[in-house]
Amino acid sequence: SKATWISTSPDGKFVYVSRRTDNEISIFSRDPATSLLTPASPATFTVNTVLRTVISPDNLHLYAINSNNSI
């Protein structure tokens, strides 16, 4: 399915892809030299009707906003 939202961690080491139709967020580690993405472990989270993700500036928290505008 298509990505609903893509977020990159402030340090550029991780990419988070939300897919509303699949109710999940996929996580990839990113090689800074090549930008190659590798699925992280765990690679996905299930989140009901996720629309958008936001990473805290300190890289410690990932916030997911669903279609009800809940966090």
What is the fold's blueprint, element by element?
Elements: E1 5-8, E2 14-19, E3 24-30, E4 37-46, E5 50-55, E6 62-66
Antiparallel strand pairs: 1-2, 2-3, 3-4, 5-6
Distance between the termini: 23 Å
Order of strands side by side in the largest beta sheet?
A: 1-2-3-4
Could you tell me the mean pLDDT?
86
- Assembly state (oligomeric): single chain
- Ranges where pLDDT stays below 50 over 5 or more residues in a row are none
- The string of secondary-structure elements, in order, is EEEEEE
- Give the biggest sheet: 4 strands, antiparallel
Strand content: over 45%
What does the radius of gyration come to?
12 Å
Give a written overview of the molecule:
By secondary structure, the chain is an all-beta fold. It has strands at 5-8, 14-19, 24-30, 37-46, 50-55, 62-66. The strands form two sheets. The protein has a four-stranded antiparallel β-sheet, with no helix packed on it. A two-stranded antiparallel ribbon has the order 5-6. The radius of gyration is 12 Å and the shape is globular. The model has no long low-confidence stretch (mean pLDDT 86).
Task: Describe this protein with a few key phrases.
single chain, 71 residues, mainly beta, two-stranded antiparallel sheet
Brief summary:
This protein has 71 residues and is an all-beta fold.
